[in-house]
């Protein structure tokens, strides 16, 4: 959402729908791959007594306040505009080297970013030797 906001503006995101208990139950059922009628009354009761309704009210209240706030902070709207491409930061030579090593040695073997570990310590030593 942040990337879409920065590149296409706030109109590309749209307004969030208000939070409701029924909406949360629907999301819960979808996330746990269960049917709506399998959602137990005990769980619903627990959600009532542990403050879910208070959380829903608070979230909706804060969201309604946020919708009014952008007009109060024009400097934030100005700051949030996308930078021209010539002002974008370029990746460092070190980062390019590590990314290249990862592409050749790790990703090519089917590893993912989660299974590689600390790539910087592994490849930066070679980078420093290469520069010396």
Record keyword descriptors for this entry.
mainly alpha; 132 residues
What sort of overall outline do the alpha carbons produce when their principal axes are compared?
flat
- Poorly predicted runs are none
Strand content: under 5%
Helix percent reads: 55-70%
- How far the N terminus sits from the C terminus, by CA atoms, comes to 43 Å
Q: What is the count of DSSP helices, taking H or I runs of 4+ residues?
A: 8
Structural class: mainly alpha
Our Rg estimate from Cα atoms comes to: 24 Å
Q: What is the strand tally? A: 0
pLDDT averaged residue by residue: 81
Number of separate structural domains: 2
Structure description:
This protein has helices spanning 2-8, 21-31, 41-49, 52-68, 74-79, 93-106, 113-116, 119-131. With 132 residues, it is mainly α. It has two domains: 2-82, no CATH class; 89-131. α6 crosses α8.
Blueprint (SSEs and pairs):
Layout: H1 2-8, H2 21-31, H3 41-49, H4 52-68, H5 74-79, H6 93-106, H7 113-116, H8 119-131
Task: Write a compact overview of the structure shown.
The protein is mostly helical and 132 residues long. It is built from eight helices and no strands.
């Amino acid at each position: 959402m942040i990337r879409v906001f920065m590149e296409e503006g706030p109109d590309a995101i749209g307004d969030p729908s208000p939070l409701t208990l029924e909406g949360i139950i629907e999301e819960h059922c979808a996330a746990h791959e269960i049917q709506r009628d399998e959602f137990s009354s005990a769980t619903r009761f627990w959600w009532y007594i542990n403050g879910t309704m208070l959380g829903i009210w608070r979230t909706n209240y804060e969201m309604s306040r946020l919708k009014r706030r952008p007009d109060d902070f024009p400097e934030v709207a100005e700051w949030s505009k996308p930078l021209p491409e010539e002002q974008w930061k370029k990746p460092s030579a070190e980062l390019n080297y590590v990314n290249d090593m990862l592409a050749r040695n790790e990703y090519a073997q089917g590893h993912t970013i989660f299974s590689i570990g600390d790539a910087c310590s592994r490849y930066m030593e070679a980078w420093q030797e290469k520069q010396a």
